[in-house]
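Researcher: We're teaching a course module on how sequence relates to structure. For the next exercise, students receive a sequence and then see the predicted structure as tokens, so they can try to spot secondary structure elements on their own. Here is the exercise chain.
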Amino acid sequence: MKRLIPVNNEENIPSIYLDSPIGDLLRYHNMGKPYESYAQAKILIGMCMDSRKHLIIPDNFAYIIRSGGANLRQSEFRVSYAIAVGDVRCIVLIGHNNCGMVNLQARKEDFINGLMEKAGWSRDHAESHFIRYEPENEIRNEVDFILIEAKRLRMAYPKIVVAPMFYVVEDNRLYLIKEE
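Model: And here is the predicted structure for the students to work with:
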């Protein structure tokens, strides 16, 4: 958590984000900025599907794609759509601590048994499913993954500002991630 930068006031927002929807996201969520009205989304937020996270933002402010670990690798078309048709110029990736997509191998048996018991799958089917999809869903480390994903998106969409952030579940706050 040494790489997290708290954002508690205007002075903590980097100049590149200050007058953008990214700055507004930080103001809404961390600083209680009163809501403005939006006719259409201004930003795309990629965040984990984990139910412990809830952003404090106004209606119509953001497109949000939720996927395990904030992994947008399987959401390229949706990202492109938000940019091309939705006219967003900023993407925020939000990881969080204690993410279930870290160390998936440790939960392999729970995953297989859960699909057998709860979904009626055979052991072979459940195990094949895990083996097939685990590599593309494992994120290894929450902070590192968000930084890698931000870099990948910047390369794919060079005119789009991509901000890596982190949600700490215990305090429900957004932090910027220090980039080396």
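Model: If you want an answer key for the exercise: The chain is about 35% helix and 20% strand. Helices lie at 15-18, 21-31, 76-84, 108-119, 123-137, 142-156.
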